[in-house]
């Protein structure tokens, strides 16, 4: 259970990134955070694991006050929060398996890190995840030899290796083509639901947010201006978040998506995904 | 105010001129004239004594004639000097490589707190300020003639060189990878081992091997001020006018540097 109240962040340069943002994520749901560039989306999720230190406010995860933690306790807290990045941020010269196992660094000691001797159950979990995201057989491939979509699968797997209580996802598809974007979002959302992990995902693509999330939060200029289910995102709401524009195409597309969602599709998408990787 | 022509308009082309670094033509020509004047003036005020140049030519011919043929008869002295130079270079490179790791990490502004960073950078800048010859003279005064002073000299320069390269390499790492590993709850030592070391290791090894090659060259130079190795033998032979032996030493140095450079290129090729 994540509870954010009165969260504000002003950067030393004077930029106000977040203004008094409050919301709670109570159940394992996928929450999309949308808003224009500079609305504070990245700052918001980076405040939650304190990669960015907030100026004021309160962040509670399961009754632990994240902003009051010491450095040591913060490390323990970060183990429980998985993070996925736009540019994947894999360690390029390490193999896929080593990148996955880096999700366990918070749980192993220095020598195990040095010698790469991770517990057998971690290795087992890594192989299972590789298989699940469609990368079986890639364990010894170096990360810099992967395509964008493959890298993001590794990024997702690394975060899930932590067996996190919360997933923070920063623009997971912004560097990918539309088809790969949808595949990545599908994997992400499916895994988040399978693992019962509450997920906060920044998206700049309203269409993706509407088709893949359970709930949408809209930020504008650092302020929370919308919080509700995807169906409630109307042209008026989008104008509120992004400003005046002709939204009819975006809103209509999302209605098509929700109609399509009734028909069975995941089976064929899954096989398409496997094929595209083979 | 002029209105931009329509994109399809092909008539009367507007004027365009390149942008000069110095826009004002008078300033531009004035600067060129000043540079020319300074060149002529500095040449004119150099007191070149042409009589001494003329005297020097036959001396040079004499010296070259006395150098030929090179004299390798004292080969054991030559061999010992060469070996000492190589040993100095190896010891200094190896120790420098090790010392450069902590210094380099502390010199990376994206990893350590500001005070530590300033201390490490201060050390790097200070030890790069003085040329090796000056450092060598200093160490010879403290520890006396011989290879110890030479090794210490090369060690100072190797450490500062490799650590500067390492620090800059770490600072140029994409911040995202560090952020991602930190976000998993990894400790600082784990960050070093799991993220920085794999990314920086190949270049660090390459720089270290390059430094070994450079140390072989520099070990011959520091010997001239008495810091051991083949350079010391060379300085002694010059002061005794043993020109034929000096040529033998010079030829040995050339081949030594040649082998060093070849080896270093080969190893760095393997690292890629």
Summarize the structure in words:
The complex is a heterodimer of chains A (278) and B (272). Residues 260-278 of chain A have low confidence and may be disordered. In chain A, 41% of the residues lie in helices and 21% in strands. In chain A, helix 7 links the parallel strand 7 (166-170) and strand 8 (199-202). Chain A starts with a strand and ends with a helix. By secondary structure, chain A is of the alpha/beta class. Chain A has helices at residues 41-48, 71-79, 96-101, 110-115, 120-132, 148-161, 178-194, 206-212, 235-242, 248-260, 266-277, and strands at 2-10, 16-25, 30-34, 56-61, 64-65, 81-84, 166-170, 199-202, 215-220, 223-228. Chain B has helices at residues 25-45, 50-67, 75-106, 114-129, 132-143, 147-171, 175-183, 188-222, 230-239, 243-271. The N and C termini of chain B lie far apart (58 Å). The A-B interface holds A 49, 51, 75-81, 83, 85, 87, 89-94, 98, 102-106, 110, 113-114, 155, 158, 162 and B 174, 176-177, 179-187, 189-190, 193-195, 198-199, 201-202.
Protein topology:
The complex is a heterodimer of chains A (278) and B (272).
Chain A (H helix, E strand, L loop, with lengths): L1 E9 L5 E10 L4 E5 L6 H8 L7 E6 L2 E2 L5 H9 L1 E4 L11 H6 L8 H6 L4 H13 L15 H14 L4 E5 L7 H17 L4 E4 L3 H7 L2 E6 L2 E6 L6 H8 L5 H13 L5 H12 L1
Parallel strand pairs in A: 3-8, 3-9, 6-7, 7-8
Antiparallel strand pairs in A: 1-2, 1-4, 4-5, 9-10
Helix pairs in contact in A: 5-6, 6-7, 8-10
Chain B lengths: L24 H21 L4 H18 L7 H32 L7 H16 L2 H12 L3 H25 L3 H9 L4 H35 L7 H10 L3 H29 L1
Helix pairs in contact in B: 2-10, 3-6, 3-8, 3-9, 4-6, 5-6, 6-8, 7-8, 8-10, 9-10
